């Protein structure tokens, strides 16, 4: 089997916003369903704030890897059900080992900003939901060179009953 590759999973607004006040700036049931379908069974690496933002912790059916520089975070019982790492390289190593053991070919980085920024150069695939909105926010997806990727999926959807906005599901694969 080949080494499990790194994928980023993000929903971003037209202005790059991904978060506000430790939460998502929208309600998009369709995107939550897509997130689950993409990530289920795969190791998921996330920053400490993203972990804290999860309504259901840990994400079930997935190895949750949480990055923090706070050495007392785990001891304080704040990461129950997750594996805590102090740097991205360690998290990727653990995620890869687990994925290989489970016969999974992809590991997911699920945010936020710093994690996306650090993982982008190593990402083979980006699952991007383009949200048709321009909300205020305090967390952004970093700008990146899209010409390094080929779009392999582009699927526009009108807002469903439990979606605040229309959106487009995209998959970008590194060329
Ligand atoms: N729309 C989306 O797809 C999406 C996805 C994810 C999150 N979000 C939203 O984005 C917001 C959270 O993201 P965020 O960017 O504010 O924070 P974040 O990246 O989730 O967490 C930041 C924290 O992670 C730790 N960290 C980051 N890089 C690290 C590294 N290289 N080594 C060790 N620790 C590291 C640090 O924790 P310590 O301070 O503990 O050291 C840092 O303060 C929320 O609003 C959330 O809802 C949106």
Quick summary:
Its EC number is 1.5.1.3. The chain has 175 residues and is α/β, with parallel strands linked by helices. It has helices spanning 29-39, 48-53, 88-102, 113-119, and strands at 5-13, 17-19, 44-47, 64-67, 83-85, 106-109, 125-131, 139-140, 149-157, 167-174.
What does the model show?
The structure is a single chain. By secondary structure, this protein is α/β, with parallel strands linked by helices. It has a single domain (5-137), classed as Dihydrofolate Reductase, subunit A, CATH 3.40.430.10. It is 22% helix and 30% strand. It has four helices and ten strands. It has helices at 29-39, 48-53, 88-102, 113-119; strands at residues 5-13, 17-19, 44-47, 64-67, 83-85, 106-109, 125-131, 139-140, 149-157, 167-174. The strands form two sheets. It has an eight-stranded mixed β-sheet, with helices on both faces. The chain is globular. The model has no long low-confidence stretch (mean pLDDT 97). It binds NADP nicotinamide-adenine-dinucleotide phosphate.
Fraction in helix: 10-25%
Please report the distance between the alpha carbons of the first and last residues: 21 Å
Beta content: 25-35%
Integer tally of domains: 1
* β-strand number: 10
- Helix tally equals 4
* CATH level-1 class: Alpha Beta
- Rg, please? 16 Å
Ranges with pLDDT <50 over ≥5 residues?
Answer: none
What do we call the CATH topology? Dihydrofolate Reductase, subunit A
Bound molecules: NADP nicotinamide-adenine-dinucleotide phosphate
Enzyme class: oxidoreductase
Domain DHFR: 5-174
Catalytic activity: (6S)-5,6,7,8-tetrahydrofolate + NADP(+) = 7,8-dihydrofolate + NADPH + H(+)
EC number: 1.5.1.3
């Amino acid at each position: 089997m080949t080494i499990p590759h790194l994928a980023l999973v993000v929903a971003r607004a037209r202005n790059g916003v991904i978060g506000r006040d430790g939460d998502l700036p929208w309600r998009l049931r369709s995107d939550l369903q897509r997130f689950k379908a993409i990530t289920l069974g795969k190791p998921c690496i996330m920053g400490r704030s993203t972990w804290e933002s999860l309504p259901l912790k840990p994400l079930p059916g997935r190895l949750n890897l949480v990055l923090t520089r706070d050495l007392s975070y785990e001891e304080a019982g704040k990461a129950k059900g997750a594996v805590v790492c102090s740097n991205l390289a360690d998290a990727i190593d653990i995620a890869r080992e687990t994925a290989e053991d489970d016969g999974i070919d992809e590991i997911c980085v699920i945010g936020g900003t710093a994690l996306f920024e650090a993982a982008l150069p190593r990402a083979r695939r980006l699952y991007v939901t383009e949200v048709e909105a321009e909300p205020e926010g305090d967390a952004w997806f970093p700008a990146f060179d899209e010409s390094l990727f080929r779009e392999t999926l582009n699927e526009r959807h009108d807002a469903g009953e439990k979606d605040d906005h229309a959106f487009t599901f995209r998959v970008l694969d590194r060329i």
